[in-house]
Structures are given as C-alpha cells and as structure tokens.
Amino acid sequence: MQTTSLDATLGALSDPTRRAILARLAQGEATVGELAAPFPISQPAVSRHIKVLTEAGLILQRVDGTKRPCRLAPHGLDSLEDYLETLRRGLEKNYERLDLILAARNDGASPIRRK
Amino acid sequence: MSKLTLDTDGDRYVVVKRRFAASPEAVYRAHTDPELIQQWMLGPEGWTMPVCQCEPVAGGKIRYEWTNGEGGGFYLTGEFIALDPPHRIEHVERMHMPNPTPDNHIVTTFVADGGGTLMTMRMTLPDAATREAMLATGMDRGMEASYQRLEGTAGWA
Fold it and tell me: Residue B43's closest CA among A112, A98, A113?
C-alpha cells in the first residue's frame, strides 16, 4: 500500500533527471554509479535525486557490500494515491451537482422533469 | 468544506460516505432515474452524458456514455444485482476505455440521518494494473498532461 503523499510523488516526478533514473531502473537494478554515468552531473547530485525518489516511495535501495543498488519500488508507480484523489475529485463534483438538484426539489422550484 | 469521505478498506475496497440534505427516497431516486443521473453523474467540469440507460430492477442494464465535446469519450456498462428502494442498490459496472476494466462490484446504501440522508458506497478497489490503465500515466509527457487525461478516466460513476 502506497503511503507517501501525492505531492511527494508529483514532486519526485517533476524533474527530468529523476524521470530518466526511473526509466533506467525500469530495465533493472542499477548501482548509483551506473545511474550517474549517463548524466553530466556529479554522483552526489545523483544521490540526492535518488534520495528524493526513495522518500517518494518510487524506488528502493539495498545494501550490497559497499554498493547501494537501486530498483523500482514494486508499487511505487501504481498510482493508488492518484487514483483515489482523482476518484474523490470526480465524486465531489458529482455530489455538488446532486446537492443542487435535491435542493431545487425541496424548494418546489424543481428543474426536474416529472414522468 | 468537503462533506465527502473516501477511505480504503483493506486493499480491496473503497468506502465513500456523503451526507445529503434530502430524504433517502429523493437520493435513491437520483441514483436510479436516468433523467436525474444525466444531470449530475458527470465527473469533472466539461463532460456530459448524452446516453444514459438505467433499468433499476434486478438484472436491469446500465449504460452511461460520456463525452467532453472535443472527441474525448468513454462509456460504462453494468447490471443491477439487487435493489431495495430507497435503502440499497447493489450493482456491477465496468469502464470501457475501450477495453473493459474488471467488474467493479458496488453496494450503495441510503440511511435517514438527522433530516437528511447518509449515503455509503462500498466499491471494489481496482487492482494496480487496472489503476495504471485508468490513469495511463505518461511520464514522458509530464504529469500535468496525464492529470488532464486521467480526469476523464477514473471511474467516477
């Protein structure tokens, strides 16, 4: 179950380097050094990106001797938060409209067509 | 202030609760009368439901078709399982995008509550693959674009 916030997920995905790191990890586990190789930025900078992705629940890092290989979190991108938030927004809109319909009926000024 | 609560129940169900300032009879009718459904079950702004078929009897068919007026659209089909007016509706539904999602089993109850109605809707939580299909998150196209797209496809019926 995803427990990180939608904001954290969206924030983590907002950066092109982090999206590229995720794309690389979609092909399989990789060390920090391997992840840093394609980018013209320092390994510490890549490590900071990895920290953001880890805190957003998108990737997992394990310890293997001196290495810290990364992999995609199994449910990091399964969008439960996105789904529930989108569902909530749609339902809230629906029920606000339904409130108006019900209120109109109560007022006797119903726009509802009777059968 | 939002009066709606939405909670997961385990990893299989979503429970939505909402109060309405109307009788259970009125709220139940708004959930089963096609002419009323067409006026509110529309999701985000900008969508309409040009086709609304709803036969509120056991075994009765449901078909809702939405369009955003810009070529975007999808539809939902379903069947009623059991109805107990004005207290309870049990039905299954699936989205077609255009491939059908797994059946979503939904029980909706309406209980008189302080002069109004407390509605409780318990629905199946789509599995991860279905959620991903619904959200169709295209990371390369940016989250904002995905957000705009997913607004039309999250199953707010």
Answer: A98
